[in-house]
Specification:
Chain lengths: 96, 524
């Protein structure tokens, strides 16, 4: 997951823990701009089943800031993920 | 239980008791040594005050020597008083200055910080991979009281990461084992045992006497329960977790303000309102864990706890010399094989509709105490997979006969070529140990989603199996769950030729194989 240059017109997305196991990747690039409210839909298209099995319980961040995009009136649905942004999908880890 | 295992178990118990006895003898010797040293110091100081000293005589304003001795003797007649005097003279005991000297001289701690640590009580829930290092550093740092909650006993597979436990203490409760190690590390700390699993009914009473709680547990249900209890009782919570190569750390409910007070720190539910689906929850036993990964998270918990305890309370004039923990709450993500290894996420304030810490909270003390909050149900649970019918399954004993004996119906010599044995454990596990003649098709490959790349991989293994369409397929895994799901999947893909070919699973997997057929097969 070495920091690589994001190709123009894309943002980078990091997958942690269960999200990494599900996608088989630790990171990738997705076309920007993208409305935050459409992020899960976009990922579900790429990885069928991911929304229910992983994303629903995840924390999501944009440039290391926690955002809320779960539920119809979540405050950050209309936030736009821009070119060069870093998005992270962080499932709760509960073991110890 | 066989005679062999009874003998083995007795031997182990004797070894455990002998070790305990050894520790007790060692502690007694140390305590006696300490006592003797104190006595010697006491006698020495009494002697110093009573010995004839010509200079002292000159300095004593002509008071008679006898009278002077009498007064000094009265002032220092007992060893205990001598001790009390020195305690009163300095805020810390002399041994404490020495023991904590390296942290005392740091501006972040100092005398006030050390006294705060000494007066603090911390509850550590879970004395495993996180709890062991966390407890070691907090006890080492001189936290006055440390409570330990755990209902498990020490197992051999714990020892690569649970650093307070040791080989001779296998079978001892984790709480007792940790006490032995912690007491030998720092006998000045009061340790309190709670050798049971935390339950909603016991949580409030257990947490009540403590100032701060560390969540070192390993299930989603306990994480919500601990966070809720801390919110209800107004206690800060240091929560950490680890699996495989990943870890997470948060300081929650800090500061612990009243429900609905937006200036209070967020709780676990604010960050993760929905538990992960139960089938996605992987334990360290199933998913694996690297010792230093969980170790670093436990050490960081101790660090955050020390920061919270020693934080300068906002002074009257508002100026504080000591650095205070960062005001904004954060989630620290550790990923051992990523670069950078650490990422710190800025969290939001409390959620206005949080089920625990908002004014609309449904989590109440009554609900908790009465047991009406069902955390296991909230987080969901998975029953052992049982999806196949009896004629799609075979016991390990019967499968062993197929492998090893002459077929009673056909009189055929056993042959590995007569069937296909598919082991669906992941490759890394298959490489550890496997049955002769088995082929490895990892469950992740069998169950992978149908993306373009995946379907090519899938068709490869499926077509391989199709090419031997006459041979029955036996599916095997570690515990007997994935094997059933694989049988279903194979039939969905039509590998059974519409019922022409038998496909079934070996019940109970390699665990049953080890227990019933081959005791030598490694357990991991």
């Amino acid at each position: 997951m070495a920091p690589v240059k994001v190709p123009s017109g894309h943002f980078s997305i990091l997958y942690f823990a269960a999200a990494s196991s599900f996608t088989g990747k630790s990171s990738e690039h997705i076309a920007a701009p993208l409305r935050a409210g459409s992020l899960f839909e976009e990922l579900e298209k790429k990885y069928p089943g991911m929304e229910a099995k992983v994303l629903a319980s995840c924390a999501v961040t944009v440039n290391l800031d926690y955002i809320e995009i779960d539920g119809g009136n979540a405050p950050d649905l209309d936030l736009v993920i821009q070119e060069g942004d870093e998005v992270a999908i962080i499932p709760p880890v509960s073991s110890g | 239980m066989t005679t062999v295992s009874v003998v083995e178990s007795l031997r182990q118990q004797i070894a455990t008791c002998e070790t305990q006895l050894g520790y007790l003898r060692q502690q007694l010797a140390e305590a006696e040594h300490l006592q003797q040293q104190r006595r010697l110091r006491g006698e020495e100081s009494v002697r110093r005050t009573t010995d004839y000293d010509p200079l002292a005589h000159d300095m004593s304003y002509g008071l008679s020597d006898d009278f002077r001795s009498e007064i000094f003797a009265a002032l220092s007649h007992a060893e205990e008083e001598q001790q009390e005097q020195s305690v009163q003279r300095w805020p810390l005991d002399r041994t404490e200055y020495k023991r904590y000297g390296r942290q005392l001289i740091m501006p972040e701690i100092g005398l006030q910080g050390q006294l705060r640590l000494k007066n603090a009580s911390v509850l550590i829930v879970g004395v495993g991979g996180l709890g062991c290092p966390a407890a070691a550093y907090l006890v080492g740092a001189g936290v006055g009281t440390v409570g330990l909650v755990d209902g498990d006993v020490v197992e051999e597979s714990n020892l690569h990461r649970q650093i307070l436990h040791s080989t001779p203490r296998i079978g001892m409760t984790k709480v007792d084992s940790a006490r032995v190690a912690l007491n030998s590390l720092n006998p000045n700390v009061r340790l309190i045992s709670h050798p049971t699993r935390l339950s909603p009914e016991s949580a409030i009473a257990t947490f009540q006497p403590y100032d701060l709680v560390l969540d070192c547990t390993d299930t989603p249900a306990s994480r919500y329960l601990i966070s809720d209890t801390c919110v209800l009782l107004g206690k800060p919570l240091v929560s950490a977790s680890a699996l495989r190569t990943d870890g997470q750390l948060m300081v929650l409910n800090n500061p612990p303000r009243a429900k609905g007070d937006g200036s209070g720190g967020p709780c676990y539910r604010c960050v993760f309102p929905k538990p992960p689906p139960p089938e996605s929850v992987v334990s360290c036993g199933d998913g694996g864990i690297l010792g230093p990964v969980v170790g670093v998270m436990g050490v960081l918990q101790a660090l955050e706890a020390i920061k919270v305890i020693t934080a300068e309370q906002p002074g009257v004039n508002g100026n504080s010399v000591r650095p205070t923990p960062a005001d904004s709450p954060s989630l620290l993500i550790f990923s051992a094989y990523a670069n950078p290894m650490f990422r710190s996420i800025r969290l939001r304030a409390r959620k206005p509709k949080c089920a625990a810490c908002s004014t609309q909270a449904s989590v109440t003390p009554d609900a908790l105490n009465s047991g009406s909050l069902d955390y296991v149900q909230f987080c969901g649970s998975i029953n052992p997979v049982n999806t196949l019918s009896a004629n799609e399954r075979i016991s390990v004993d019967n499968y062993a006969k197929i492998r090893m004996e002459v077929n009673p119906f056909t009189g055929m010599e056993p042959s590995r070529d007569s069937h296909i044995l598919v082991d669906v454990r992941e490759k890394v596990q298959f490489d550890l140990c496997s049955l002769d003649g088995s082929i490895n098709i990892p469950f992740s490959t069998v169950s992978s989603v149908l993306t373009k790349e995946a379907s090519e991989v899938e068709s490869k293994w499926a077509s391989e199996l199709r090419s031997h369409s006459d041979k029955p397929i036996f599916v095997l895994c570690r515990l007997g769950n994935d094997s059933q799901l694989t049988v279903k999947r194979m039939k969905e893909l039509g590998l059974d030729n519409g019922g022409q070919r038998w496909i079934g699973d070996i019940k109970g997997g390699l665990r049953a194989w080890r227990e019933n057929v081959d005791n030598d097969f490694p357990e991991y």
